[in-house]
Amino acid sequence: MCNFTYYIITLPRAIKILMKLHEFEVMQDTDRAPHARGFTALLLGMALTIVDVPMFAIAMPGIGADLGLSTQDLALIAGCYPLVVAMLLLPAGRAGDWFGRRRMFLAGGLLFLFGAVLSAVASGPLSLGGARMLQGAGGAALAPQAMAMIPRLFLPAYQSRAFERFAMTASLASVCGPLVAGILLVLSPVWLGWRTIFLTEAFIVLLVMLMTTRQLAPDKTESATSSSFAEVISFATLILCLVAPLYVGPAFSWPVPTVVMLVAAFPCAALFARLSARAGQGSLVPFGLLRLPSLRWSLAFVFLAVSAPPGFFVILSLMLQSGLALSALQTGLVTAGFPAGVVIGSWISGRVSLQPLARVALGVGLLCASFVLMHFLLPQVTAGRLMPLRMGMIGAGLSMGLTVTSVMQLGMSGLPRDLTGSGAGTIQTMQQVSMAASIALSFAIYGTMLTTRPAVEAAAAMLWLQIASTGAATLLAGALLCFPIFRDRKVHT
């Protein structure tokens, strides 16, 4: 109890110090300091929507034991949040263009706050699943606004550093969840347990909303042209048909309805494309947006490379706890080298004098090499021999930081200001859908391999999925660099 009291007292102070340091750096980087100060709040809100997924993965054993949930129940609840986020990210990003990004950010924060509180007091699978869906709706509104606000908050000369800061924050959030969740579970009293994670999220999002109202001025909205309700529904149905089967299928041996949903995704995609073409520039994905080669290639790299590590991290967290009997905190400490490497890689990315596409090629190549190294390291890992894995985590994190920073900059550079919201939403929707696919396929491969192999060898075999996807990204980047006919001049400027 003493430790928990100390945590409650010191956490707000630690967050405040970190924010002050971040704000000081931003003020040194741009002559729009009064506006750019609000960028920290945007980054914290965006990071919270990402870190939620790995934190929930660490809390799953405690949630299952406390609420008496089966593995299938946990799989369904785990899919509620990313499913809703993926469905609503693009509409929320476009809504930021229409109604104001500050307004959408605050509305998302309110939904996320209510969802976190309801998750903390949930007493069963239905109440927890519903609360997680509400959190997902809030996360979808929070996530795209930070990236979309960069062109408004920063002059062109400083936008590269802003994208670097954004990408580093997103990468850290995606991989530091196990460590943060482990610390929270150790410091919390036994009677509170996993609920501490959701209460902490509620506290942080409340702090973010207060910062936003004080530091970020209201922004201008665009013209009243808007997507039709049918277009929004067709897009949400398309994402539902793509993502839901990936979570439900592996848990229930791919029943017929999941296969039907996957097949139904094709007509849904055709309907969405037709409605988008009819809506023109007011559509969720304006036609002019996808005509930009830089955005198209960025989406490809997000699909192949940026979304590969989450599946690896979820399986690694489970393997270290179930296969090697490590605690949640020990698991977080083993993976702590990855976020440290992300910080270094993101810092290097902003200072390497290479065009964005060349930096992408370097990053994805190193990321593929790091997964190959992990594949050979994992079978030799034991509870008493974790140092090689820790060192491999640093190298993988460095590669990830270099990759994601360059990919985000490639995708957002050159977007018209009135399309930055939909551009950010498109990139992050692709990231969410790809992350869901990565996690679901990693689970399926790992579960299959566990029937005949030890946990560490099953995890090593699962890594062939990450090696294949990042290897394909490496080949794509190499082709774009070597054969200019496949790219537009805007891709590398």
TrEMBL record:
Keywords carried by this UniProt record: Membrane, Transmembrane, Transmembrane helix
Cellular localization per UniProt: Membrane
Entry keyword annotation includes Lipid biosynthesis: no
InterPro entries with a match to the protein in the record: MFS (IPR011701), MFS_dom (IPR020846), MFS_trans_sf (IPR036259)
One Pfam family this sequence matches: MFS_1
Membrane topology, as annotated: Multi-pass membrane protein
Residue ranges of domain Major facilitator superfamily (MFS) profile in the record: 38-490
TM regions (residue ranges): 41-62, 74-92, 104-122, 134-154, 166-191, 197-217, 229-248, 254-276, 297-320, 326-348, 360-378, 390-412, 433-451, 463-486
UniProt cross-references to SUPFAM superfamilies, sorted A to Z: MFS general substrate transporter
Record bears the keyword Membrane: yes
Name of the featured protein: MFS transporter
Organism: Paracoccus nototheniae
